[in-house]
Here is the input.
Amino acid sequence: MTETSNLTSTGDYTLDTSHSRLGFVARHAMVTKVRGQFGTFEGTAHVDAETPTNSRVDLTIDVASVSTGSPDRDGHLTSADFFDVENYPTMRFVSSEVARRDSVWSITGDLSIKDVTRSITIEFEENGSALDPFGNTRLGFEGETTINRKDFGLTWNAALETGGVLVSDKIKLEFDISAIKTV
Here is the structure.
């Protein structure tokens, strides 16, 4: 495999879902963190290394594919208390603005969860590009941002006898992305 330290591969890409992770972290009972991820998603990107403002991203997530390691918790997350997958089976992120500063890409776009769409910005660190053993050009990125779940209509909670609540309002979104060049 040939690796490069700088992104040089302008073109169209598809997310390699078997080598990517879309995750999240929430505080539970105010004392620990619960981590989860979505197992089913698809996305495309146009990357323009020379003119980053011409770049764009479109990502769709199957909300029912949520996994936290607890079937009961996963069932609660897909219920009407949280994601309500019966009525809102997908989440979507569509970029509206892309900027680049050295190896950091700042992608602003509309995140839609349930029936709420809000603009968020995700900072991505460019991991580089590589030609894999099968002749595919790959790009790698790692990114994260924090959102307030209540801004997206995810308001269910339970008060704790010791004070505080069961689920934090702040949710960290994590992205480990591997994308394969299509054009």
In short: Residues 71-78 form the longest helix (8 residues). The chain is about 5% helix and 55% strand. The longest strand covers residues 116-131. Helices lie at 71-78.
